[in-house]
Fold these 2 entries.
Entry 1:
Amino acid sequence: MGAKRQILIIGAGRSATSLIQYLLDQSEKENLHLVVADMSLDLAQNKIKNQSNAIAVKLDIKDTAQRRELIKQSDIVISMLPAALHLEVAKDCILYGKSMVTASYVSPEMQDLDEQVKAKNLVFMNEIGLDPGIDHMSAMQIIDRIKANGGKMILFESFTGGLVAPESDDNLWNYKFTWNPRNVVVAGQGGAAKFIQEGTYKYIPYQKLFRRTEILNIDGYGKFEGLANRDSLKYREIYGLDAIKTMYRGTIRRVGYSKAWNVFVQLGMTDDTYEMENTKEMSYRDFTNSFLPYHPYDSVEIKLRHYLHIDQDDIIWDKLLELDLFDATKKVNMEQATPAQILEKILSEKWTLKPDDKDMIVMLHKFGYELNGENKQIESSMLIKGKDQHFTAMSDTVGLPVAMATLKILNGEITKPGVQIPIIKEVYEPILKELREHGIIFQEKEVPYLGYKSMS
Amino acid sequence: MGAKRQILIIGAGRSATSLIQYLLDQSEKENLHLVVADMSLDLAQNKIKNQSNAIAVKLDIKDTAQRRELIKQSDIVISMLPAALHLEVAKDCILYGKSMVTASYVSPEMQDLDEQVKAKNLVFMNEIGLDPGIDHMSAMQIIDRIKANGGKMILFESFTGGLVAPESDDNLWNYKFTWNPRNVVVAGQGGAAKFIQEGTYKYIPYQKLFRRTEILNIDGYGKFEGLANRDSLKYREIYGLDAIKTMYRGTIRRVGYSKAWNVFVQLGMTDDTYEMENTKEMSYRDFTNSFLPYHPYDSVEIKLRHYLHIDQDDIIWDKLLELDLFDATKKVNMEQATPAQILEKILSEKWTLKPDDKDMIVMLHKFGYELNGENKQIESSMLIKGKDQHFTAMSDTVGLPVAMATLKILNGEITKPGVQIPIIKEVYEPILKELREHGIIFQEKEVPYLGYKSMS
């Protein structure tokens, strides 16, 4: 068989589980040897068990000598590090002539490496997880097909959500954390949401974001709601849709989530920019009261109801109660915490997946196009449930495309050099095909064109 | 008489008018020679007219050689530059052993110079304009007196506003720009408002700031509203009020202003963090519509009313109409403008002072204290109207204390070395006394203690 081909996987967190398992499953047939490197040796060892085609190593990513040694010995490198840490790995990969795969957005600094990557004929494949990743591939496959058939794209909307599966859904929010809770708490901050509808540019500030949802329907699973992502506009260029009249990307939640979440936004509980006073001794009730006007005897409850106009019979109220937001005995017990950190703690007590809980990924694309003078629409959706708390839908949908792309680059099936994202046929066709074999399947249907002009 | 004492004034903008005039008026008696330096020679010349005791010079503040030469030749330096530009001047002042005066907040970098300033026995007096400035002095005078009489401070609230005088008030907002319009448009952004009420810390996010006003009363001038400034908490230490139970600093507007301004906040029109698309061709109506949901035929008007729940008979609506926010013929006509820049332009068309308009400064302090087991309260207020469009109330209240402090440092009446703010008796007593002679007078009265505990 010759020498084994060595794959270095940096970062063995939750998102790496399915990715490592896939490569282990392929290791005999493909003659692979995996090196799983993490800050925590335990974590790395847990992921590979006692498999013979893999070793776990402890790696401090700041240790340049060790990092470089590992990269130098490998044939290809997967970085599952937080996005901000990819760059040093990327530079080392250029130094030693190794291709690289990440599930993260291409940073400007990563993009700047494009020429050097091309000069060494390497493939740096990024944004090949779920979102970004499967969204790019599944959208581009249909967009390219519509164009190839002579259609002209006029509308593209795309939504993704990481949710809890219906069978594990036992709270009023119909939501649990299936990914980094911090990202959920601060979601939507740092800039207005930007998109275009029927040729009109639209902007939603953070303070209105959770009140501008639209209802989505997924066959067999009922209604969901979509809320706008930060910047939908830049995808016009990336997807080759510069002349498109409607371009909207969003996040999926169960119906009613966003309107209740807006309570946190309006109170100021999602703010991560300052530390509150006395957070060690603060009760959950104190925390809530911090954002309400002072009154010598009115209750926190009546002040909040009045402040945010929450009627006696509004289900939002029960959602707040469920979180113990008015509990005077539960303590925050954190030093110098921001509102967002405290909210994350409060939510985590209720929204953490139990051992038997399953997560669920939902993705929905809407493609509007003109063909032979007629307006048409295709909807394409994917709904994946997790197997267990390790092999979650999130882990599968993020990790499998990363693993598949890695192997295909190693095997010379994906060859286009440079800093890439998976929007070309050479990449998305074989990976979407293999994802289908793993049960990650899009349902496609034609629907009447529902572009906005038809309302009049 | 001996050689004239040279005062260098860097920056000859609006805020320097009264300051320069005061020093010109004193120049014979005090044997002064003024050097007024500005980017614009015209502006500097305009301020000194043809007075014999002053010259105007053109200065590029980045021209180190020229800047240093001017500082070296002077006996004391006043910097009326934007706050960010003080530092180079300050360093040169240390180099050549000159004292310095500014109306700006002490930056951390300025504070870091304290030891060097003390080592050279110089006075760097900052925050000696209106707000900060007169607020510090007038508050500390009463706080020190209450303490000296054996009182214990339990409440301090302080409000300042730059408004239009009633006789020049001809719009529904009861507001015109009397200072930098940009600061008005972005006011309150960049962090939650923080204060303490009856021992309870309170935080207001930007999205609720303009709905958390309180009503203020100024004898003879009726009702105003106060809204919280960013950080009231840090003044506890500065004013020596560490154990105080209520500490609140705010901005004054005419009643109803904030609730209407909240429309801009909720729409996202005050956002200065991104550039909108197509702002060259955009009409005011397009601008407003950018922040509203798309609809093929519903009007911008009905969408806005519905979105923000503005009733048919709500005066807020007339305030919006007055600004031409729904005008489809008026063009923004700016390249790559942010929402805040566009809003500033729209507002400036209506809110700019006319040649005969007068501005007005309002300041109100509330001091609650315990004396001999009794709770007492003092209210102290100041209301100043401008003389004309050059000698505005803003120019007087910012410039006169700066000028007075400069002369008193020059004359050895203010001597405490270091990076200072005007919170000690040596500074505030003589300056408040002289301000009274110029008509800047506080009205003080005892009122029943209205601390919040008394509500119950």
Entry 2:
Amino acid sequence: MMKDTTRIDHRKLHEVCLAILMKGGVDKTQAGEVANNLVWSELVGRENFGLLRLPVFLKRVKHGGIKCPCVPRFVECSPGSAILDADAGFGQYAANLAIERAISFAQSTGVGIVGVRNSNFFGTGAYFVHKAAEKGMIGLVMSNSFPKVTAHNGLAPILGTNPFAFGAPLRNGESLMFDMATSALAGSTVREHAARKKPLPEGMAVDANGKPITDPASIGKGALLPAAGAKGYGLSLMVEILAGVLTGAGVSKGVASMYKDVAQPGDNGHFMIVLDIFRFMELELFYDRLEYLTGLVKASSQDGKVLLPGEIRWQNYKNNLSAGIKLGKDTLGVVSKLCAQMGITQNLAPALQDA
Amino acid sequence: MMKDTTRIDHRKLHEVCLAILMKGGVDKTQAGEVANNLVWSELVGRENFGLLRLPVFLKRVKHGGIKCPCVPRFVECSPGSAILDADAGFGQYAANLAIERAISFAQSTGVGIVGVRNSNFFGTGAYFVHKAAEKGMIGLVMSNSFPKVTAHNGLAPILGTNPFAFGAPLRNGESLMFDMATSALAGSTVREHAARKKPLPEGMAVDANGKPITDPASIGKGALLPAAGAKGYGLSLMVEILAGVLTGAGVSKGVASMYKDVAQPGDNGHFMIVLDIFRFMELELFYDRLEYLTGLVKASSQDGKVLLPGEIRWQNYKNNLSAGIKLGKDTLGVVSKLCAQMGITQNLAPALQDA
């Protein structure tokens, strides 16, 4: 098989990502974990949570919105729960410490709960729930974010897109995982539409008078709507209460914008619940039972259209792991520009030629 | 003020409800808690989860779908978690035992997790999350149910309406609480539309070929759709995995229909997570911070249209507690018929005159 030279080996991409972060002022400790997170996002095909965000991260590092180095501190709340003060470092780094502590709590007590305050944007929650799944555990992970979503029947943006993620292990080492904005659209989807000058679907956003917006560029003057009205609104408040109110993090307007307030730590909050399956039943029995469920679900349409949450992510992962990652055009532009500016010599040339 | 004689004091309604349940073959232990649950549902104005369900409950009791008496048994999984085998009794009774145990776990370890298997329909999850909120705790409660919802992009009903409830205490003793079906519509809403011969909103249900259904009477030949597509589908699978797969309860088609399979225990599963707030922060500080959030949310529309989850429930509760409960016409019909059949002499006459 001919090697596709426009694809980049994930280890190579990790090297490049690490070099960019470190040249950009990120300490080695954080840079390593941030690179793990961003490259994983590329592997599963979530460009929006991958290296595309490097410029805003570095801007935040430069202006103080993300602290490097940082000294996160855990305060234990009970034998199976803790709050982590992230010291305004990277959300990806803090949330990784948090999920590892929650996993370790769950190993010793069956259940682990960790809340995080004084953090920043953490990327995709799927990364963290899969870390729990890899250990035979079920994970629930959520984060608040700066307000751009209305309350149900509200007009002004008052809640974040407040993502909620869930993951459960599958026998093959993958996981059933989802990571959803509790708003009708994710912020990253709006940015994607804006970049492509593509109108938003109807019924997803409103202006300050409650009139529908479909122009993604106008979203700054309006707000996204919660997913499914009262349901997404309720879920968003739950995320705000667990990740924000209960952890001591910023709440609603108390969370700074990743893009507009580059000098100000986000004060985002995260919240994680991890359950060690074998305390409840043998892991093999859990897999059998879960396969019974997923088998029925997959067979509920004859045309193969029913996918499990995460299914496409794992197809991407396997493909990108073996064939190399094909960076999106925008990401490739961003990465090559940063490499040029920073004098980073790792050779991305074959991939670049395709850009 | 003139007393509204068409309203029934909640204690009186409890007496009547208890008498009906016991005449219908329910043991005193379960009957007391089921009556608490049904009367609470009436107090907060959720007729669909109130005494309206008595006929189907009694039918299930008579034919063996709900076991009376039952001997539920806890198996402890870790110092803060357990599985309850409900022995095919009332879901309302089992879930109450479960939330009380989860609260007690949370009191001793900070976090309580209880899963329930071999149960039946448990009514509204809001009842249970509020029990946790009354103790200064946050509760998450979910239950699986028999399949009447498609997977995202699926055609056949394969998942339950799988409700998810959340509650957090407010300073005034009420709670911010929601209880949502993860499907586009709740089963009870479909029954309500069917009873009123009112068409369903578009985009909520499909027939076996995927064509939209709006006739609630045809839902038996089709299926409900998940709320917000992939989002509700993911949440529904989460509920099925936690409440069904992990507890050892029935999963998907393994859960029997409350209405069609009256001789067969539902084998529904429930799952509860309770967090004791004071382990994370002083309760007064939590209330302050939550009020900051709810204040901003309420103020996000000038017209007073933004309501907190549960707000209308608590208005109903206060009103019904002091003025008496005004039973819905259908419920009044059901209750008076049962009283007449069973020779129950508690005097509902003033309320009945209005029926």
